[in-house]
Amino acid sequence: MNRKGCLAYKGIIFTVEWYYNESGKSQAFDYLIKLNPEMQKKVFYLIKRIGDHGKINDITKFRNEGDKIYAFKPQPDRFLSFFIKDNTIIITNAFRKKTDKLPVNEKAKALKFRENYILRVKEGKYYEED
Question: Considering only the top CATH level, what class is 4-122?
């Protein structure tokens, strides 16, 4: 994947991207495309909302989960993400929420993916030229 391949939405305020691993796979994007069209619309509505307006004030739709991890919450699914300095949001992983609390393993994945992203960007290995 290249910079164009990971773009979810380029809004007025934020650009939203799908995180992808060294093999070019994006768990969150793969999860999205398995959802039915109605659920996909809910996800893209939230992505577009934050991209164009800069925030989603409803914590039932978007929430700070601590440790600089945020969740898009199109019920009953969750898409975890983090912000980077250039007004970009990286969506790391997605899952179906089955309990009241955020599963520790899902948050751990998001934190691991954020660390991997930061390291690969620093090394110049994340955004490759066409």
Answer: alpha beta
